[in-house]
Structures are given as structure tokens and as C-alpha cells.
Amino acid sequence: MEPPRGSAGGQEARERSQGLRRRAVERSRHPRAQRTSRFRPRVSEGTSVPRPSAWIVLKFGGTSVSTLANWTNIARVAAARSAGGARVLIVHSAVTGITDRLERLMDAGRGEAQEQELRAVEERHRGLATELGVTLGEEIERELAELREIAAAIPQAGEVSDRTRAHVLAAGELMATHIGVRFLRSRGLEAAWADARTMLRAEERHSASAKASVLSAVCGFVPDAALEERLRGLAPVIVTQGFIASDEDGNTVLLGRGGSDTSAAYLAAKLRAQRLEIWTDVPGMFSANPRATPTARLLRALHYDEAQE
User: Fold this and answer.
1) Which of 72, 204, 225, 266 has its CB 3.0 to 4.6 Å from that of 221, i.e. a possible disulfide?
2) Model confidence at 2, in pLDDT bands (50, 70, 90)?
């Protein structure tokens, strides 16, 4: 695929025309953002702050990875960043609605309700793969088969453990990224898939409950030269998952609902990325859900504490 041509301004206009917008934090151009970031690399006293690397991290949410139009734009953005000399790490969420489906699958019990959720998850991924013109692949077939096995065992167990919940919910991101990397390759990009659980390791928190340690984990983000080297050897464009990580024993843990932004920030810090771009299909934060409330207002200014409410 030939990368987009023209000025940077023209490129950004084309990106906006595709319905996706971005927020970027650049280490070199926005020092204030760097100073106030929660995810500053820890630097020992007497040492210098690591210089930015050639990496750019792109993060896309569930709605941004759910259609051909959006994936076409993702391919265009990745190609443009790569053509500019950057190494690109794409971090993205599960296809929109899938995490909720997987939650309902675990709560459905035995019978038709459970089968309905399984069918919906499978059909959504098969449909997206067909729309993107790629095969589903044996990796996703294995994930779907494993979901069926776990779902069948839930009624016998009588409850869903936190570890099982984390394992099931992680399937959404794993399946979506396998489809995504196939599409990027079909568009001529040299892209590789990577498992975020090999890159993000949860930190032990003595004050955290066992549940929080599995479903709302916190990870280390010290710059990692070995990780940079490993990813550099895979491909110019890497696709990985948001939301998931692993503990010290290699078990799957989650970063909490909506944790893909956090994943991207962790990875940007570990790779000493020159920029983290968080892409979205809305222009900002509204007073209410604009899809459900047509009169919702775009908030031009908002205090951090208000945004958390």
C-alpha cells in the first residue's frame, strides 16, 4: 500500500474526514503534558530522563476497530507514521459490544441464553473478518472453542472466579487484534501481532484486594530496552491488545474496564515513545451520551475530578 502523500496538515484533514480524531501527547513538543502525566518513567536520582525513541503508539477504542471504514483509516494512519520513519505500535480494544457480551456469557448460566451469547460473539467476529476481506484464522477458532469449553463448565462450578473472568474477557481483545493484523497485512503493511501479556507485568500491591489484583491491576512502566529490541525485530508495525496484562506467574489479569488507554500509556512509557496518540470517533467529552441524548453538549473545559464522576 502506498502511504498517503501531501503535507502534514493535509494528512490530518484526511484522517479527520474518516471520522476518527486523535489526542496526542508528545514527549518533545509538550513538556508540560510530560510533567503532569501519571505515567512518567521512574528515574533514579542523579540520572537523566531517557531520550524519546523512534516509537509512536496509536490507541484505538472498540468503535474505532469495528468497521471497514475505520480500519481503512487505521491502515492509512499507520502507513503515514511508518513512512515518516517511526516504528508504530497499535494498541486497540475489543470490537465494540463484545466485552459486554462476554460478561453476559458468564452470567447467562446453562441453556439458550448462554448459546445466544456465544453465537453473537462468533458471528460478530466472522462478520467483521468478512467485511475486512480476511480469514478468521485458527487463532480465533481456538479462542472461540475455548470460550465454549469454559462456558460449559461454569454451571457445574456454580460461580465464575476472578481469574476465569479475566481469561474470558481477554478473549475480546485477542480476537480483535488477530483480525486487525490480518487486515493491515492485506493492505500491504509489514505488521506483526504481539501479546500484551508478554509486555505488561502487573505489580504486586499489598493493599489491593485479591479481586482488584486480577481485574484492576497496575503495571510497571519503567523504560525497557529489551522490549524495544524484541519488538524492533518483529516488524515496523506491531498490533497488540489494550486492557490485558499478566501477573508474575503468567496468569491473565485486566487493567479495569476502559483500561486500553492505560495500556497504551504504559507501553508508550516502556518504549520511550516520542508520541502517544489516542484516537476516538467523538470530538471530546459531552454532558451526556451523544448517541442516546441528541441535546448533549460538548464540554469545552472540564476539571479532572469532574471527568471522573
Assistant:
1) 266
2) very low
